[in-house]
Amino acid sequence: MRSLLLGTRNPGKVIEIKSILADSGWSFSSLQEFPHVGEAEENFVTFAENAIAKAQFYALATGLCALADDSGLEVAALGGAPGVFSARYAGENATDADRRSLLLSELTMIGGPNRRARFVSVVAIAQPNGEILNVSEGICDGTITFSPCGSNGFGYDPLFVPDGYSQTFAELPDTTKNLISHRARALFNTKLFLASCESC
């Protein structure tokens, strides 16, 4: 069975990706199994550029086919922030709770009824030599709550209610989130590619 490195140390993200890519004919490892590998830089201005850079970095560092994603929350009232800085929004060592608190406080300061937002995810796959094989994008539109709700998921999930639902990502069952989320939508296209890839 072909092996694919998941370029993340986030345990929640590893579980989510493995669940969505199950039955793709691949086995998976993650950066948790490669403690000697450093962190790829994310200095670009788009999710696609960051995902590609991370996939190339981890493929070259491990000699494996590598998958990396760059995902983030874009809030309309904040001009699209935090965007590509979603994971670093409240500083390098901030917790998910710190980032959620900052986001809510900034929306409160702005005021107004517009709480529209969208999650964006771009997934890239690189060969061991760094060549990019595939890039997929997924978007999920929704709104931001006034306070965190739910204990599932990670990141901004407790603040985001996807369109067509009344619960946040953190309240919805994983089976539902893994059908409608931004990452799920990007990974569905990735899964189709993996199933037919002959050069991986």
Offer a concise description of the structure.
The protein has 200 residues and is of the alpha/beta class.
3D structure, described in words:
The chain has a single domain (2-196), classed as Maf protein (Alpha-Beta Complex). It is built from five helices and six strands; from the N terminus they run βαβαβαβββαα. It has helices at 11-21, 47-62, 96-110, 174-180, 182-196; strands at 2-6, 26-30, 65-75, 116-126, 132-144, 160-162. It starts with a strand and ends with a helix. 38% of the residues are buried.
CATH fold-level assignment: Maf protein
- Total domain count: 1
Count of distinct strands: 6
Please give the CATH architecture. Alpha-Beta Complex
CATH class: Alpha Beta
Shape: globular
The average pLDDT is: 93
Sheet-strand content, in percent, reads 15-25%
Low-pLDDT stretches are none
Helical percentage: 25-40%
Structural class: alpha/beta
- What value does the Rg take, in angstroms? 17 Å
> What is the H/E order?
EHEHEHEEEHH
- The number of helical runs is 5
